[in-house]
Each structure stands twice: as C-alpha cells, then as structure tokens.
Amino acid sequence: MAVKIHPTSDVSSEAVIGDGTAIWLFCQIRPGAHIGKNCNLGKGVYIDNDVHIGDHVKLQNNVSVYHGVTLEDGVFAGPHVCFTNDMRPRAVNPDLSVKSTDDWVVTKTLVKKGAGLGANSTIRCGVTIGEWAMVGSGSVVTRDVPDHALVYGNPARLHGFVCACGEKLKKGEIKGKMMAAECPACHSIVDIPLDLWEKIK
Description:
Layout: E1 4-5, E2 10-11, E3 16-17, E4 22-23, E5 28-29, E6 34-35, E7 40-41, E8 46-47, E9 52-53, E10 58-59, E11 64-65, E12 69-71, E13 76-77, E14 82-83, E15 109-111, E16 116-117, E17 122-123, E18 128-129, E19 134-135, E20 140-141, E21 149-152, E22 157-161, E23 170-175, E24 178-182, E25 189-193, H1 194-197
Protein name: N-acetyltransferase
Pfam family, one: Hexapep
Organism: Leptolinea tardivitalis
C-alpha cells in the first residue's frame, strides 16, 4: 500500500515511512524518524529526530513525539498528547550561553504495545507505559505504568486495570500472587499481580 503524505507536511527524505501510513496536514517528520506500517498521523503531528514508531499506531491532531521516545505497535495517542525528553530543561547554560546538543542528556521514554494515551496527557521522560495500559485525558504521567493499568490525574495514579478491548477489568479469582481479573465485555481473563491490584485507589 502506498504512503499518503499531505502536500502541506514536511517529511524528511531521511525518515523511514512504512507502507499504508497516512500523514495528514501540517505534520513535520524529522531526519532519522522511523514510522511503521499502517499508521495514521493527524493534523499538526510532530515527530522528532530518530523517534521510533511501530506499526498500526494512531496519533491524533497536534501530538508531539520528541527525540528519545519509542512507541511500540498499536499505540494510540489522543489530541495534544505531549512527550518530554529532558529532566532538567533549560534554554541556556549557567553562563547564559545557548545550550547545544552537547549540553544536555536525552532521557528515553517507552510506550509499549497497545497502550492508549488520552487527550492532553503529558508523559514525563524516563517512564515506561506498559502493554494495553490506559492513561486518562489531561493526566501527567510521572512514573512507570504497569501493563493493563488505568491511570489518571496529576500526577497520574492507579485507578484500576483494563482489558485489551478497553473495558475496565473486574475482580476475579485469586491464584497465588495473581488476580485472575475478568473483562465484563469480552470475558477475557487477565492475570494481574495481586500486590498491584491492592494499590487501586
């Protein structure tokens, strides 16, 4: 399948774009970016140098993905989701000289397979968001998010666990150190560590 790039978008010839990916209005894709197959990038999406994005990723309008961020297959980011990459951001050095690329250290961020990030959420650099996790709209994620976790707030806190289909999981049978949580929609069983289940607010 052909790649679709809107004529208003600026896509570097040094970026790799997978088959079937659509890049809509006013996007900017920097050199070294790698975007997988069948992705959909909405209006105004920014992809920085050397960012790696897997297959079947959907980034809605005005998402910013900065250098040091990796999005695995099937990640969803709602409108205006913003990633960061500098733990100590400054425009200048202590002597007021302008910072260069040699004056700071990139802090990496990983969003794993199938995770969903709600509109206007901010992801602090250095965290890992687990597989099929869900981040509520407007949240500020400052720590790692477990697989299947539902987090929201500022700072984002654990409020439950969700199925891959998106439904909130219900308490199930306890098997040793695991909770066999059940999805009320598709009836899947998801094993959740009991110690994490007990932290639900």
